[in-house]
């Protein structure tokens, strides 16, 4: 068993790193991996946090590249939520392994992002995954998915005792901007201990994210660029960290642009299914466009935010109220029309209930031996309720985000890859395709004029189609839901590798330079490509159990094996 190494930071007082070499998940001979924490005292985060000062212990899991790690690029992966553990992706999407149905074993993922890149997965904001502010005893109610701090309890099959973060909403981030400032300090500290894992010793980094990561990644990357400028003009003294590439997999980007495409996609998608009646879709669109509707409320939120909370500390009650109300209205009256479909918002082929993530994932990360191997002193939280409440209900962060950061990144030569599975409703490809066409930078005309061409994954498989030029690509991936890497791992892995090398997504054989050396050719739209829905994919067992299963769990008659209810059987 590896010994935990503890290093005090010389650059940031009140900060230290604790980590160990790991031997689980990534089992490729000779490939190293490390897990651990960067611990920040409140004094290390002056001017970064919003409501109050609190400790942060941010968990990371790093996997060096399977090929040439000393010259491979470095990429950070950020899951969404908000409040989702990035570590989930290591064992169910794009990491080195998959977890078996027994929640106790793993097997290799040949299409891992670390095939040719050094990968750093970070559980953030604090209270997500294995990250914590303060450790408390508590219970996790499997029926409600609620974690409650308490010293004593009588555990049973649905009420599990454990160690958790505080659950205090004042002790975590409440805006994406706060997350960006915190992560910049994290990366500065991490690189001081792991300097060998940047390409050719130059300090550059790439960011990839899924779902709410579509909000995180552009803001975080843009913050790194703005910090670089402050370093260059002498305002602050730190290392410059260049941003090379960003990638979004089914990430939400700008609610103002995307919102009307939720009801549109619900009735006009590549699978020829009307998930809701057209009249309901029309009503939802009207709720977006009408005076005082969703669009107007988002614009009001952004105007007030720019005037009264430009630093996005999330402490101005007026701005918070307006933005939170805008989010609630848009979610309930535009996106919410989809509820009557009885289908998963993450895979329109799946009838509810479905398990996302598979129950084997939280089961694995909450095994004692896994926590010991990773050096984690607490239970794993897949999606932090405290973070989610803060971002959505307190500050309305989702509707504050806009395409401005993406515009700036493209204008500054950052490579941008947008990768979207076409069975996802939550951050559907039609809405983000529209985002890509509205991006405003020097290459806009070339990009809008480019066409869709096939993505050749291997000699016999076409994974989707892509529009690309001037360092921007938009990939429409066939037969994939919200966690696109889960459904199409080889396709997404190939796109990741090609994007990181600044190659064309279609074949990986042509350089795609910012000067526009490459431009994809084909039809201007891919909506005409029609497909057939597969049989309902439930990802294994249900985490939204049927009423009969919930009742059996509550009265103690359910039979549970490897964290899965096997009796009574779920009938949908």
TrEMBL record:
GO molecular function, one term: serine-type carboxypeptidase activity
Cellular-component GO terms for this entry: fungal-type vacuole
Gene Ontology terms: biological process: proteolysis
Gene3D superfamilies from the UniProt entry: alpha/beta hydrolase (3.40.50.1820)
InterPro entries found in the cross-reference section: AB_hydrolase_fold (IPR029058), Peptidase_S10 (IPR001563)
Keywords: Carboxypeptidase, Glycoprotein, Hydrolase, Protease, Signal
Pfam families noted in UniProt: Peptidase_S10 (PF00450)
Family: Belongs to the peptidase S10 family.
PANTHER family given in the database record: CARBOXYPEPTIDASE, SERINE PROTEASE FAMILY S10 SERINE CARBOXYPEPTIDASE
Protein name as catalogued: Alpha/beta-hydrolase
Source species of the chain: Cryphonectria parasitica (strain ATCC 38755 / EP155)
């Amino acid at each position: 068993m590896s010994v935990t190494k503890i290093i005090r930071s010389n650059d940031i007082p009140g900060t230290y790193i604790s980590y160990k070499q790991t031997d689980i998940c990534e089992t490729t001979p000779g490939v190293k991996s490390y897990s651990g924490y960067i611990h920040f005292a409140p004094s290390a985060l002056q001017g970064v946090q919003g409501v109050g000062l609190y400790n942060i212990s941010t968990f990371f899991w790093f996997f060096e590249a399977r090929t040439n790690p000393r010259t491979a690029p470095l990429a950070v992966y950020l899951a969404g939520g908000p409040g989702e553990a990035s570590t989930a992706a290591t064992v169910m999407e794009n990491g080195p392994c998959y977890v078996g149905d027994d929640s106790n074993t793993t097997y290799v993922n040949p299409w891992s992002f670390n095939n040719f890149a050094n990968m750093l997965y970070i559980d953030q904001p604090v209270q997500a995954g294995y990250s914590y502010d303060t450790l408390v005893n508590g219970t996790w109610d499997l029926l409600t998915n609620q974690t409650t701090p308490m010293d004593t309890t009588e555990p049973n099959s649905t009420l599990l005792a454990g160690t958790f973060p505080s659950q205090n909403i004042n002790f975590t981030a409440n805006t994406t901007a706060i997350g960006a400032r915190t992560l910049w300090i994290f990366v500065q500290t991490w690189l001081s201990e792991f300097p060998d894992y940047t390409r050719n010793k130059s300090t550059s980094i790439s960011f990839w994210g899924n779902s709410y990561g579509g909000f995180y990644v552009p803001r975080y990357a843009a913050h790194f660029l703005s910090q670089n400028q402050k370093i260059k003009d002498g305002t602050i003294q730190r290392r410059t960290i260049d941003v090379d590439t960003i990638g979004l997999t089914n990430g939400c980007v700008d609610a103002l642009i995307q919102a009307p495409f939720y009801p549109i996609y619900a009735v006009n998608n590549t699978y020829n299914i009307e998930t809701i009646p057209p009249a309901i879709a029309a009503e939802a669109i009207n709720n977006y466009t009408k005076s005082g509707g969703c669009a107007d409320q988002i614009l009001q939120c952004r105007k007030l935010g720019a005037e009264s909370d430009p630093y996005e500390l999330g402490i101005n009650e007026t701005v918070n109220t307006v933005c939170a109300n805008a989010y609630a209205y848009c979610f309930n009256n535009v996106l919410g029309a989809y509820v009557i479909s009885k289908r998963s918002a993450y895979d329109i082929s799946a009838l509810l209930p479905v398990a996302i993530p598979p129950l084997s994932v939280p089961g694995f990360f909450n095994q004692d031996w896994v926590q010991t191997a990773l050096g984690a002193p607490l239970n794993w939280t897949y999606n932090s309720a405290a973070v989610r409440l803060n971002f959505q209900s307190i500050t309305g962060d989702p509707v504050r985000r806009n395409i401005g950061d993406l515009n700036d990144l493209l204008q500054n030569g950052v490579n941008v890859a947008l990768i979207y599975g076409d069975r996802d409703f939550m951050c559907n490809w039609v809405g983000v395709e529209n985002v890509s066409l509205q991006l405003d930078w020097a290459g806009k005309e070339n990009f809008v004029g480019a066409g869709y061409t096939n993505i050749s994954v291997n000699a016999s498989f076409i994974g989707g189609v892509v529009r690309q030029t001037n360092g921007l690509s938009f990939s429409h991936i066939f037969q994939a839901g919200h966690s696109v890497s889960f459904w199409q791992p080889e396709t997404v892995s190939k796109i990741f590798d090609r994007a990181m090398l600044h190659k064309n997504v279609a074949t990986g054989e042509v350089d795609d330079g910012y000067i526009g050396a490459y431009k994809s050719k084909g039809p201007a739209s891919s909506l005409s490509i029609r497909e057939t829905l597969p049989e309902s994919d439930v990802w294994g067992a249900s985490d939204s159990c049927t009423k009969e299963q919930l009742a059996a769990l509550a009265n103690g008659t359910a039979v549970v094996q490897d964290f899965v209810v096997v009796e009574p059987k779920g009938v949908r």
